[in-house]
Amino acid sequence: MAETIYVVPRAGLLVADPDARGGSRHLPAEGATVPDTPYWRRRLRGGDVSLGRPPKLAKSAKPAPKTDEA
């Protein structure tokens, strides 16, 4: 598996995401996990993005207990 990094764009800056799928072709303001490629390393060195931490996933709700209704 390829290495990935989590990057966040500098405030107010739209950073092109060449691997974006679907809608926007820009890195979301909250950041994203991207491949650790020379493109993203250049964005880091240039100050367009910074390394960040991905948001913690919300814990899923516990399944409802089963009842014996017969």
Describe this structure in words.
This protein has one helix and three strands. The mean pLDDT is 87. It is elongated. With 70 residues, it is an alpha+beta fold. A three-stranded antiparallel β-sheet has the order 2-1-3, with helices on one face. It has one helix at residues 38-46, and strands at residues 4-9, 32-35, 49-51.
Task: Describe the secondary structure blueprint for this structure.
Blueprint: E1 4-9, E2 32-35, H1 38-46, E3 49-51
Antiparallel strand pairs: 1-2, 1-3
Task: Summarize the structure in short.
By secondary structure, this protein is of the alpha+beta class. The chain has one helix spanning 38-46; strands at residues 4-9, 32-35, 49-51.
What characterizes the major β-sheet? 3 strands, antiparallel
Strands, count: 3
Structural class: alpha+beta
Annotation field: number of helices: 1
Q: Please bin the fraction of helical residues.
A: 10-25%
Global shape: elongated
Strand content: 15-25%
Give unreliable regions as ranges: none
List keywords for this structure.
70 residues; alpha+beta; 3 strands; elongated; DUF2635; DUF2635 domain-containing protein
